[in-house]
Amino acid sequence: MSGDGLDGPLDLVVRGGRVLDPASGIDARLDVGVRYGRVVALEPDLSALIAPAQAAYPPNLGTALIDATDRIVTPGFIDLHAHVYTGVCGLSVPADETSSRSGVTTVISAGDAGANTIEGFRRLTVQSSRTRVLAFLHVSNVGLAPWPAGESRDLDMLDVEAGIRAVRENPDIVLGVKVRMTEGSVVGDNGLEPLRRAVAIADATGLPLMMHIGFCPRPIGELLALLRPGDIVTHCFTGSSNTLVEDGHLAAAAHRARASGILFDVAHGFGSFDYRVADIAIGEGFWPDTISTDLHSLSAAEIVIDLPTTMSKFLCLGMPLEDVVDRVTARPAAVIGRGATLGSLAVGRIADMAVIDVEEREQRFVDSFGGTRTGTRAIRVAHTIRAGIPWFGPLPHPGRGVSVRPD
Ligand SMILES: [Zn+2]
Predict the structure, then answer these.
(1) What is the pLDDT of residues 277-291, one digit of tens each?
(2) Is residue 17 helix, strand or coil?
(3) Residue pLDDT, tens place only, 103-143
């Protein structure tokens, strides 16, 4: 499992942890060796490549070490749905503020920016965050507008040509197209037209669509019929009208959609995760494809808190740890078309990592609708490492500043 990293001292070694990397099938006790922001060695013992600190001038702090004994080392988490365009998109939270303590190294902005505001998003959020920030572009040219009026009530704001142009001008950060399909507050009485326009942009650019559901203007089957394989239904376990559950069962259209390759994402949120819906879905074998937060300033303060808390809720619902990790690493990386570069700790990959504990303790977990469950295990993040640089130290040797971003 070694690359070309065995020919000199390493910048960072994460020692002695259980490396759990669903993308590459690795589940073993290994040291992770990092140089120049990338994983260069995965070996049972990398002691020979650990350089001691030297007090001479110029100083050399040697190889930075993180002791992961009795801990689990995973690829950095990818949060597929969050809101991070602070200062422009209402309710956003700074990506670094929550990511730094929660194992998240990649955050996907779920439609905060539209064609008119994507350049500002690049300057204010992408370039100023240590967290990797990528985006689904909103079909509305103004981006997501949570207040005082929704973004898709005026169809003149949903200019398809402008959306196509914005996607093509920003291929490094735009992963797909976002639309919120909530009647009244978001789409007014425009019915399915915002969805049709979002599909038009996604079709023209060959990218996936992310569709927010909850209080949809039409029965869910009519919305799902417009999606294509690879498109994402976000807030999949929301409890409101015209969602995945019909008459106490999962809608037949939901099963058909999954069979056709449409994907289902949690996006817990302040008002979008209902244990009663999750129970019905899971009872029919319908686990989510990806686990995400829908983090914003309300949900970060309570109910959601962060991605590890959302992951812990799925442990509580009976999903094995390996599957939970898969749904915040390999799966979202594949969903966004970045499986070749993100979501894995294999040798040669960017050294984005989470070092976690799975604590055996009772914890009460709430949903967005007043439901509670008590779990016996909770994921706690000990270290978040972005491109080989741990948040809050220890820093690798001088010359390896926190601005290192090999991707
Ligand atoms: Zn959202």
Answers:
(1) 999 999 999 999 999
(2) strand
(3) 999 999 999 999 999 999 999 999 999 999 999 999 999 99
Per-residue pLDDT at 399? 60
**How far apart are the CA of 82 and the centre of ligand 1, in A?**
6
Compute the distance from residue 355 Cα to the ligand 1 centre, in Å: 27
Q: How remote is the CA of residue 10 from the centroid of ligand 1, in Å? A: 40
Ligand 1 centre and the CA of 83: distance in Å? 6
For residue 208, which phi and psi values (nearest 5 degrees)? -75, 160
Residue 146 has pLDDT above 90, yes or no: no
- What is the reported pLDDT for 57? 78
Q: Residue 404: what pLDDT?
A: 47
Higher pLDDT, 403 or 192: 192
Query: What is the spatial distance between Cα 167 and Cα 205, in angstroms, rounded to a whole number?
Result: 7
Asked if residue 181 is part of any domain, the answer here is yes
Q: How far is the CA of 92 from the centre of ligand 1 (A)?
A: 10
User: How far is the centre of ligand 1, averaged over its atoms, from the C-alpha of 178 (Å)?
Assistant: 10
Task: Count Cβ atoms within 10 A of the Cβ of residue 162 and give its class: 0-12 exposed, 13-18 middle, 19 or more buried.
Answer: middle
Cα 214 to averaged position of ligand 1 atoms, centre (Å):
11
From ligand 1's centre to the CA of 267, what distance in Å? Answer: 7
Mean pLDDT confidence for 160-169: 98
User: Is 64 contained in some domain?
Assistant: no
Question: How much distance in Å is there from the Cα of 15 to the middle of ligand 1?
Answer: 37
Spacing, Cα 272 to ligand 1 middle (Å)? 9
315 to 10, 170, 220: CA distances (angstroms): 35, 37, 28
Q: pTM to 2 decimals? A: 0.96
Ligand 1 center from residue 111 Cα (angstroms): 8
Q: How much distance in Å is there from the Cα of 110 to the middle of ligand 1? A: 6
Decide if pLDDT at 178 tops 50: yes
Q: Is residue 88 part of a domain?
A: yes
Q: What are phi and psi of 278, to 5 degrees?
A: -60, -40
Nearest by Cα to 103 from 14, 202, 195, 196: 14
In a domain, 205, yes or no: yes
* Domain interval for residue 189: 77-305
Judged against a pLDDT cut of 70, whether residue 3 lies above it is answered with no
Count of domains forming the chain: 1
CATH of the domain at 276: 3.20.20.140
Closest of 44, 49, 48 to residue 12, by C-alpha = 49
Ligand 1 center to 90 CA (angstroms):
11
Residue 112 Cα to ligand 1 middle (Å): 9
